[in-house]
């Protein structure tokens, strides 16, 4: 029976590889949040627009993204999208870290489609009379949405947005298929070099679980804060 030992993986190059992968996974999560949330808000507002063409555009984006697996999005942005660029720009793209850029683009579009659904529900949960009152006071519809409706909607949707962040954190692992050096890619590298598959993936499981539990705790805390019971405390 093989002897299990985590000690070789907690020092030297192996530990450095795993920590580098963890840092990139967290970086991808943070960068995607910064870009996906504004895009999600814009798509949600498009779907709530009184103009039919804008609503159709928002709905088409959401359905087109949600009906395609994230794996396909990753592969498209890595293999397909660069081929549509002019030769000069394509050379610059391939000279850079195209794996991380492709993963970031795919995760942003995918996450924004799901977040927009939550934000749209949050906007619709705000009493419609508030928008009418703001416009009656002389505010334009766009200003009323930005200053009156959206702050309340984002507060309402904070728990589901944190849940989407948890999904985003786990989805970063799919970037391994395009060679991005995130946690799963580095774990495979460590396993291949050390031949310690159980220990390697046990550590990776612990890392994913730890971050996921933190995000789950934040979502539960946010749920208590925004709930009527939490507001009375």
Short structural description:
By secondary structure, this protein is mainly α.
Protein architecture, described:
The protein is an all-alpha fold. It has a single domain, classed as MetI-like fold (Orthogonal Bundle), CATH 1.10.3720.10. It is built from eleven helices and no strands. Helix 8 runs antiparallel to helix 10. The protein is flat and about 75 Å long. The termini are far apart. The relative contact order is 0.14. The C terminus is likely disordered.
Key attributes of the depicted protein:
single chain, about 230 residues, mainly alpha, about 0% strand, disordered C terminus
Q: Would you identify the regions where 5 or more consecutive residues have pLDDT less than 50?
A: 229-233
Name the CATH class.
Mainly Alpha
By DSSP, the count of extended strands is 0
Q: So how many helices? A: 11
Please give the share of residues in helix.
over 70%
Mean pLDDT, nearest integer? 90
Describe the secondary structure blueprint for this structure.
Blueprint lengths: L11 H36 L4 H15 L3 H11 L6 H9 L2 H28 L2 H9 L4 H16 L1 H14 L11 H12 L2 H30 L1 H5 L1
Helix pairs in contact: 1-2, 1-5, 1-9, 2-5, 3-5, 5-7, 5-8, 6-7, 8-10, 9-10
